[in-house]
């Protein structure tokens, strides 16, 4: 499956370095979820940035399967379509982070330079986001839904306005840019994780201090699959750490990239 994508910049003459950064969003997001990060990194690094819509999100094709092997293959198919085969940096938030971790077991892609995972661990989770599902159940099928109305309804179930505003970015002209029915049916597979072979490359985990997606109990799973992993704690931030402490997260990612290549 070829995924919908957005390339920054749209002019190759503006690219001064040979590296490509691939950015993957989390559940219910789209390629615009991490757009500001892409702009920041391109401005400071002059790398080509590619933001992808994961299947059943944004403008990408829809499919009833949401297992990580299928999601990983979508990314690889898209990179092959774009003729990107080396010097790749992956950045993934939440579900997107699981996808980029899973990609490491594909031997055909042996030129990953660095992986940066935002607030997710290579483990199987229990049911998360009950309040988000309750909220979306109430409004997903409403016709001509405005962002203002959606905000007030979701506020009844979701206290974190960062989450609400992130969801609202996918409400375009009264329609949601994700297939809620498929994502709901496949949610257990999104929570799931199969242990993968050890990957000895450069991988960095950024965890929100207020989030429990990466807690100390998961460190063993991280290091058993990624022996060279480094974990950074992002203060004053939860699961949406890139929104709640933007300056620290963006600059840390920038520092990681500089450290690797300069």
Protein model, in words:
The protein is of the alpha/beta class. It has one domain: 3-Layer(aba) Sandwich (Rossmann fold). 38% of the residues lie in helices and 16% in strands. The chain contains eleven helices and nine strands. The chain has helices spanning 35-45, 68-81, 95-103, 130-139, 147-155, 161-168, 180-185, 187-191, 219-225, 241-244, 246-261, and strands at 5-8, 20-24, 48-52, 88-93, 112-118, 171-172, 175-176, 202-208, 230-234. It has a seven-stranded mixed β-sheet, with helices on both faces. Strands 6-7 form a two-stranded antiparallel sheet. Strand 2 (20-24), helix 1 and strand 3 form a beta-alpha-beta unit. The radius of gyration is 18 Å and the shape is globular.
CATH topology: Rossmann fold
Q: Output the CATH class name.
A: Alpha Beta
- Strand order of the biggest β-sheet: 1-3-2-4-5-8-9
Number of domains: 1
Overall pLDDT confidence = 93
Low-confidence stretches: none
Which sheet architecture does the biggest sheet show?
7 strands, mixed
Work out the number of β strands: 9
> Beta-strand percentage?
15-25%
In percent, how helical is the residue content? Answer: 25-40%
Span between N and C termini?
35 Å
CATH architecture call:
3-Layer(aba) Sandwich
CATH superfamily: Alpha/Beta hydrolase fold, catalytic domain
